[in-house]
């Protein structure tokens, strides 16, 4: 693992390194994704960066046919919908991300509890390259 900081840019840098980072409170043990300087549970400032396994399960989802501008620019829309879900990581925290490789033509076939593994989506090139968190079925 590289040396990441609490800076939000490092969350995306870690995604570029195929790592999912967050923080753990040294006082109460609470885990957070992405990393936070201050614990959201006990408000301690004694937190450290950890790397999550990237494994989890789907706990909620929706299929989006009318995307926000940035997703429309990426090619999504009524004829090309995408899935966003809430994933509960094996370590406990929940995170929202795009869910890949699911049946968008029959969203009723997407199952809550499906085991998922973290992946990343890369958009843009050169200086404009961005990394986004996503999950796909294991």
What's the helix and strand layout?
Blueprint: H1 8-16, E1 20-25, E2 31-32, E3 47-52, E4 55-64, H2 69-73, E5 82-89, E6 94-99, E7 115-123, E8 130-137
Parallel strand pairs: 6-8
Antiparallel strand pairs: 1-2, 1-3, 4-5, 4-7, 5-6, 7-8
Features:
single chain; 138 residues; mainly beta; OB fold (Dihydrolipoamide Acetyltransferase, E2P); five-stranded mixed β-barrel; globular
Characterize the structure shown.
The chain has two domains: 1-52, no CATH class; 53-138, OB fold (Dihydrolipoamide Acetyltransferase, E2P). Helix content is 10%, strand content 40%. It has helices spanning 8-16, 69-73; strands at 20-25, 31-32, 47-52, 55-64, 82-89, 94-99, 115-123, 130-137. It is globular. It is mostly beta strands. The mean pLDDT is 94. The strands form two sheets. Strands 4-5-6-8-7 form a five-stranded mixed β-barrel.
Distance, first to last CA: 23 Å
The CATH architecture of the largest domain comes to Beta Barrel
- The largest sheet has its strands arranged as 4-5-6-8-7
> What top-tier CATH class of the largest domain fits best?
Mainly Beta
Number of strands: 8
Largest sheet descriptor: 5 strands, mixed, barrel
Q: Tally the helices: what do you get?
A: 2
Q: What structural category characterises the helix and strand content? A: mainly beta
Please write the string of helix (H) and strand (E) elements.
HEEEEHEEEE
Beta-strand portion reads 35-45%
Q: What is the residue-averaged pLDDT?
A: 94
Number of domains: 2
Relative helix content: 10-25%
CATH level-3 fold name of the largest domain: OB fold (Dihydrolipoamide Acetyltransferase, E2P)
Low-confidence stretches: none
Radius of gyration using CA atoms only: 16 Å
Global geometry? globular
């Amino acid at each position: 693992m590289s040396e990441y900081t609490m800076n939000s840019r490092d969350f995306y840098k870690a995604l570029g390194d195929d790592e999912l980072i967050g923080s753990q409170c040294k006082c109460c043990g609470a885990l957070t994704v992405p990393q936070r300087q201050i614990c959201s549970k006990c408000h301690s400032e004694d937190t450290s960066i950890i790397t999550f396994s990237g494994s989890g399960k789907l706990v909620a989802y929706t299929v989006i046919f009318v995307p926000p501008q940035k997703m429309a620019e990426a090619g999504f829309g009524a004829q090309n919908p995408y899935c966003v879900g809430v994933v509960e990581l094996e370590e406990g925290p929940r995170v929202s991300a795009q869910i890949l490789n699911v049946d968008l033509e029959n969203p009723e076939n997407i199952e809550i509890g499906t085991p998922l593994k973290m992946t990343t989506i890369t958009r843009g090139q050169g200086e404009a390259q961005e990394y986004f968190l996503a999950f796909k079925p294991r």
